[in-house]
Amino acid sequence: MLGQIEITFWHWAGFVLAVLFFLALDLGVFHRKAHAVKFKEALGWTILWMSLALAFAAALVPLRGREEAILFVTGYVVELSLSMDNVFVIALIFAYFRVPAEYQHRVLFWGIVGALVMRGAMIGVGVTLIKHFQWLLYVFGAFLLFTGVKMFFADEEGVHPEKNPLIKLARRFFPVTTAFDGQKFITLREHGEAATDKAHFARYAGRYALTPLALVLLMVETTDLIFALDSIPAIFGITQEPFIVFTSNVFAILGLRSLYFVLAGAIGYFRYLKYGLSLVLVFIGVKMLIDPHGRDPEWWQFKIPTGASLSIVGGIILLSVAVSILAAQRERQEKKDSPKDNRPPKDG
Q1: Can you give the pTM of this predicted structure?
Q2: Is the dihedral angle over the CA atoms 27, 30, 36, 42 positive or is it negative?
Q3: Burial (0-12, 13-18, 19+ Cβ within 10 Å), 154
Q4: Tens digits of residue pLDDT in 300-340
Q5: Which residue ranges make up each domain of the chain?
Q6: N or C, fewer C-beta in 10 Å, the chain?
Q7: Helix (H, G, I), strand (E, B) or coil at 35
Q8: Residue 252: in which H helix or E strand, if any?
Q9: Do the beta carbons of residue 239 and residue 199 sit within 8 Å?
């Protein structure tokens, strides 16, 4: 019967092993050699990951029913949308540290591996806490509502590595080189190596030292942790089914790497996405506060249909992206049509 198959350990193990297989294939075969990821390659990977996510949702229909398949898609859309904001911050980090294009994929790869472990742990803790203290859903709802309103009115902030506590600790306890050593995170230099920077590397002769790429990785991981504080409560606003929460997060994170290379060069076309994401957080926060989520109180029976939630979230994101693109195109057209400065040159 549809929707009656119980999720067992083997379903979890099979999914995790499949993810590990794709990650190993990615790093060991397709990106074994460092190279700059071009737009077409990134777009192909993005389409592949999205197709796999939709195929997974389709497979859920006969296994767990249409309801959970829609919950997965809704959670995936929410997590992927929130990840888009993360993409733009990562672009600022790469620009700040002047990371060469051919090394960016490696940073994102290991950043995503760390994010998967970190988010898996956070989801596990969250599921356990909610199981024993369901009133935490109201706390999460209020937090998302506050975060969404704050995001809507907050000004854009830059990247400040000097304020990052992990960067401070790394610099305090480990030597850090000032130059990249290929795509290595840790390097060992001897006297006479790197003729262009002998004085610097002589300081670390025979010693292991972190490279700037390691600091970039710490920044990326810290950024994901900050975004996870919003996205994890948000997915619990969609569903508390552990397998759906975990798998939707994993698919969104796996697609983040290729999505970065697709969107990083088009940040100007998503200027209003922040406002759309803030409205999504507000909507999910309100939903968590007014929707019983299985608590089924006798005095309140209001419930937002799953399909309606998906339509609202998807509609908000698409509208914010569409408005951003139209605004960017109009601005470009105005610059193109603006009269050129025809004033005569000043006399020398």
Answers
A1: 0.79
A2: negative
A3: exposed
A4: 556 777 778 888 888 888 898 888 888 878 877 777 777 65
A5: 37-176+211-333
A6: C
A7: coil
A8: helix 242-263
A9: no
